[in-house]
Amino acid sequence: xxxNVLVVASEALPLAKTGGLGDAVSGMARAMREAGVExxxxxxxxxxxxxxLVDVKTVGDLDGLPGGPASLxxxxxxxxxxxxxLLRNDALYDRDGTPYLTPEGKEYADNxxxxxxxxxxxxxIAAGRTAVPVPHVVHANDWHxxxxxxxxxxxxxxxxxxxxxxxxxxxxxLFPMEDxxxxxxxxxxxxxxxxxxxxKISFMKAGLRFADRITAVSRTYAREILxxxxxxxxxxxxxxxxxxxxxxxxxxxxxxxxxxxxxxxxDTYTAADLQGKSTCKRELxxxxxxxxxxxxxxxxxxxxLTSQKMADVALRAMPAxxxxxxxxxxxxxxxxxxxxxxxxxxxxxxxPGRVSVQIGYDERRAHLLHAGGDILLHGSRFEPFGLTPIYxxxxxxLPICSRVGGMADTVKDPGKDACxxxxxxxxxxxxxxxxPADMIAAIERALQLRTQPAxxxxxxxxxxxxxxxxxxxxxxxxxLFRGLxxxxxxxxxxxxxxxxxVVRPRLPVADVDLVPALxxxxxxxxxxxxxxxxxxxxPAAPAA
Length: 544
Prior knowledge:
The protein has about 550 residues and is an alpha/beta fold. The protein has helices at about 20-35, 90-95, 110-125, 145-155, 180-185, 205-210, 220-225, 235-240, 275-285, 310-325, 340-350, 365-370, 385-395, 405-410, 420-425, 435-450, 455-465, 470-485, 515-520, 530-535; strands at about 5-10, 40-45, 55-60, 70-75, 80-90, 135-140, 160-165, 175, 195, 200, 215, 245, 295-300, 330-335, 355-360, 375-380, 400, 430. Helices cover about 35% and strands about 15% of the residues. The chain has a nine-stranded mixed β-sheet with strand order 3-4-5-2-1-6-7-11-12, with helices on both faces. α1 packs across α18 and α10 packs parallel to α11. The radius of gyration is 23 Å and the shape is globular. The protein starts with a strand and ends in an 11-residue tail after the last helix.
């Protein structure tokens, strides 16, 4: 039988997007569908989402969910031919603001109920209690779907398997323990061996504890989250389950992000002919109110203005860079912490015509930013994957990135002391540290490399032609899911004959690289429970 996967998430492009999660979910689902998996997305029916689907029909009513009765609506994203299920409860989801925040930027007070309802709906589908075909695997994404594995376990669902992908462990979905009944979580699961985290309910911990498999979105991040520095208090549990932890890097949508075909750009270009990039640079300078100087080095930044993204460090570093290099310009697109936004506005006021800051997000300007920039500045204190540097590389805008998470995997930098031949293989610049001096040194290094046109051009070509598509990650997800459900087959859409079924589970996937050194350094074994909550080392689960 064909492998059937239900992907549960809070976002998916183009239906709902606040950041990289929406890109990752839709990109992964599309790639798996192309490879022959029966994939269906399950999302909340936010305001306006249903209108973006075709072939819409109600396929069932669900009573007794957190937040009240709801209905399941099926449809398709026409441009991707991708099946979608929406959980419709207008009282929960038909609202102003973002999927998570009010128009004033505050978290909805009932977010726990909103995403618990989504998890209960997925569990009913897995239990065969709806008219929707029962999947072989339910794939939960981030904390918003973290209750799914717990609820499936509580319901005694064993034939249908579950997996959870950690897109960002920093966001855990924490809610008061007294909300357990309203969220439909059995009391027996509200313990340190269940979803309890420092006296609260953690949706993320629920998923990590009970999912059959756990994936992280880059190899380096999979190693980092086993340590106290990046584990967010869950490193003990993750070490306990590291035999089930698999690193599958994200990809990017090579059709949407393609400078040769991008309808958002005033001119297109390729790695072989960069002439159109100059046109994009001029358009970017004019759109952002910068001096139209083709010889300026245009540094761009397109990410959240938060401390995680080291926007606070950039605020302190850029004046020194601008003062020392009169030909440098800076264009910023993003939003985030109010004090950092104000600081960016102040920086723009101090350097008129050389610094421009646009608060918010606009898809056209985001594409133009990557196409028109010379250098992307993308510091980060932690970065599970890092789509923005990949977009920039695709457009020949070389990234300066922190050596953390997925960026340490995707950005190639032989180092500042490397020979010219080695530097000619680079795709960007990586730096260590979190101080303004660390960032300034990386920027100055990039500016020096840009004075060598042949070398810079070679780096641009490397960056633009690197393969970060979903093709390989999709194969790894397929191998993972078919390992969980070995009786299934997949039929790639370009093939007539089905791929033969997996004879036995094959885990871990080839991309698992969870550092033996970390295992050797873990602290003395504990019995789990509260130790896991406190992030203490626990014995490893036996390998699958």
